[in-house]
Amino acid sequence: MAEQKNSLLVKLDEIEARYNEIEKQISEPEIACNPTKLISLSKEQGKLKTIVTKYRRHKKTVAGIEEAEQILADSTADEDFRELAKEELQQLEGQKNALLKEITNTLVMADDMSIGSVIMEIRAGTGGEEAALFARDLYNMYVRYAENRRWKVEQLDFSLSEKNGFREVIFSLKGSGVWSELGYEGGGHRVQRVPETESQGRIHTSAATVAVLPEPEEIDIQIAPNDVVEHVSRSSGPGGQNVNKISSAIKLEHTPTGITVSIQDEKSQHKNRAKAWRLLRSRVYEYHQSKKRAERDSQRKTMIGSGDRSQKIRTYNYPQNRVTDHRINLSLYSLDKIMAGDMDEIIAALKDYDREKRLKNL
User: Fold this and answer.
1) Total domains present in the chain
2) Do residues 88 and 9 both lie within one domain?
3) Per residue in 206-244, is it b (16+ CB within 10 Å) or e — as a string?
4) Are residue 267 and residue 123 in the same domain, yes or no?
5) Residue 360: pLDDT over 50
6) For residue 107, what are the contacts with CB-CB under 8 A and spacing of at least 6?
7) Do residues 130 and 99 share a domain?
8) How many whole angstroms separate alpha carbon 180 and alpha carbon 112?
9) Cα dihedral 34/36/41/42 (nearest 10)
10) What CATH number is given to the structural domain containing 188?
11) Model confidence pLDDT, tens digit, residues 111-165
12) Nearest-CA neighbor of 343 among 118, 154, 142?
């Protein structure tokens, strides 16, 4: 335990040193004249600020403890003065432990908290029309949760089924803590219920997959225009009919990775292109991040599961009004509330479990 604490303090010293270095760099004239570098450094500084502020309070508390201990060790000191030092020592010890716990929790979750925008993709899996209706229900669940959080929701692209379910829907969410809250949602979601299309009341099992991608800013990932091939075509609607007489659908292909994205949501070619680039940046960014994670034994092993779409993470059982998250063996008998966007309890449980795992791996 003492060894873990010492390694934590060494890490915090390194973070504070980096914070001080950034402060010096930002004040240099050549950095002030370079907006790209300035923005990058300012973002890094903002990410470290909370940890550094708490660590400086911790160091001040430790100094106060040392001072109180010196007074207590001084046999010539006034007795009343020694009694005050004893009381202060107890208070400061409590503050020190609380601060260290707070700093540790902030440190292990800092990277996630710094991501304020994600792109979510929901696709219908096995189950035909019922799977598409389930994908629509998941989309509505996330949108309601986002509205409760006052996050900004923007639909990027979608493909409707015959009964207005979603074969696929892609949307972005922006707001404080969005990745730290919804980063656990990636994977396979399964529903057990009597479908709208079922006439004999039999329970069916259908599935949908969810992907959650951190949305990087252009400064976070540079994609060379020469590495991207653009295809322009007419948008098409259900049944294959053209919904647009002008060529507005955009498909982008990133040749180094083979990643492709297609957007046809807007009638404007310009708007579709902008959305396609946002989605491409997220997918390429996630591609490179996943390679980095694999190289260092995968960051997401410290998170819950891999976020892989093939991994079944949750079952929604309508007859029993039950939601089960298989990663943490948690069952909640409040499916109706969860589907209405009240996901607080299940997300809090996932975050607590994740935090404990990260602390062990710190």
Assistant:
1) 3
2) yes
3) bbbbbbbbbbbeeeebebeeeebeeeeeebeeeeeeeeb
4) no
5) yes
6) 8, 11, 12, 15, 51, 362
7) no
8) 5
9) 100
10) 3.30.70.1660
11) 777 788 899 999 999 989 999 999 999 999 999 999 999 999 999 989 999 999 9
12) 142
Give the strand pairing for 312-317 and 187-193. Answer: parallel
- What does each C-alpha distance from 17 to 23, 45, 105, 323, 341 come to in angstroms? 10, 11, 20, 46, 42
pLDDT in tens, 41-95: 888 888 888 889 999 999 999 999 999 888 888 888 788 888 888 889 999 998 9
The structure tokens listed for 192 are 């057990």
CA-CA distances (angstroms) from residue 198 to 123, 238, 301? Answer: 22, 23, 40
* Beta bridge partner(s), residue 228: 254
Cα(140)–Cα(159) distance, integer angstroms: 15
Q: Token pair of 185, please?
A: 């949602």
Q: Are residues 185 and 232 in the same domain?
A: no
